[in-house]
Amino acid sequence: MNVVTTPLAGFPALVLNADFRPLSYFPLSLWPWQEAVKAVFLERVDVVAEYDHKIHSPSFEMNLPSVISLRDYISQDRPPAFTRFNVFLRDGFACQYCGAAEDLTFDHVLPRSRGGRTSWDNIVTACAPCNLKKGGRFARDAKMHPNRRPRRPSMHELQNMGRRFPPHHLHETWVDYLYWDVELED
């Protein structure tokens, strides 16, 4: 990952919670500049850092925000939504049977055909070949056991897992609010 001093394409703003921590690490909580400017005018956010680039109207001029913080704190203790992305993130974007990172799918540990539900406690990430190999059988019958038992993660666990997947480029104004090893580049 590299830190750039030039503005990023599209001038996205890093969105921080009211405690100055990112709302999300993966995907990184970014808003398009238009949404950031709208939130500034609606007094929903405070501007923490700016790009050197200005926007103009006939009666107004402002630098585009590069980092904004919400005025109202959003609790991160709520249970995470059950989504394909969050399951993949919980499992580190790796097949829980062989470790592959390509062609990922859901696998029902207790197959749906045997009464298995689509829930945190019954779904693991599986590559397509492992999912096909296991088929509608129980893990013990297929002699395929997930590396980790499926369970509902906390938001904090998902945030920590997201830190393992830093974006390729960050703007220099974001670095103080993110926790990855970075290199500065022009």
Structural overview:
A hairpin with a 2-residue loop joins strand 4 and strand 5. The protein is α/β, with parallel strands linked by helices and 186 residues long. The chain contains five helices and nine strands, in the order βββαββαββαααββ. Strands 3-2-5-4 form a four-stranded mixed sheet.
Brief synopsis:
The protein has 186 residues and is an alpha/beta fold.
Q: Quaternary status of these chains?
A: single chain
* Fraction of residues in helix: 10-25%
Percentage of residues in strands: 25-35%
Count of individual helical segments: 5
Order of helices and strands: EEEHEEHEEHHHEE
Q: How many β-strand runs? A: 9
Q: Structural class, please?
A: alpha/beta
Q: Averaged pLDDT, please?
A: 90
How does the SSE layout of this entry go?
Blueprint: E1 2-4, E2 13-16, E3 30-31, H1 33-41, E4 45-57, E5 60-70, H2 84-90, E6 104-108, E7 123-127, H3 128-134, H4 139-142, H5 155-162, E8 169-171, E9 183-185
Parallel strand pairs: 1-8, 1-9, 2-5
Antiparallel strand pairs: 2-3, 4-5, 6-7
